[in-house]
Amino acid sequence: MPDQPPPNLRIREVAWGDFEGLVDTYWLLYEERETNPEIGITLFGSRPSHADEAQWFARTFERVLSGASIMRVAEVDRHVVGNCLVNRVGATADSEEAHVGDLGILVHRDFRGRGIGSALMRATLAACRGRFDVVRLSVFSANAGARRLYERLGFVPYGHLPGAVRRGGRYLDVDLMRLDLRPPHANG
User: Fold this and answer.
1) Domains detected in the chain
2) Are strands 156-167 and 79-88 parallel, antiparallel or unpaired?
3) pLDDT for 29-82, tens place per residue?
């Protein structure tokens, strides 16, 4: 069971000023990948530029404002230490897949194992209710800690993709998980 989240943890909706903290946390993953090749997030071959990240953030922020995405951030002592993002799968709100969200989560390496990821996901999933009927995610099969967290939150496996990620000369398997947010009577 994870530790209790720090008392100075605040989970809130993303703000425009969160960009630098989010990018710094993300960029650390490229260093971490060198010592831990099984780090549980898919990365580009090399670290994106600041301009690339600014474009990503602007698009993501626009999607949050339009309702196509939900993003919550975790901050400790007013420093962003993680985020959880759910993007609508369908291209438009009237798409046949608009009820499905794709979830990704990232917690700064110095703040993992403190219950922040769990608190961040709970807040994000609460915001998803009424906007998405199904939330899906993928997780590296070797990332047992993340899989346990997702299962505690109600996610169930629905698939396994051997060799889904090629990192260097090594292939890593990915498990697919989903959470049904529909009311019980709608699940038939």
Assistant:
1) 9-186 (3.40.630.30)
2) unpaired
3) 888 777 776 666 766 777 888 899 999 999 999 999 999 999 999 999 999 999
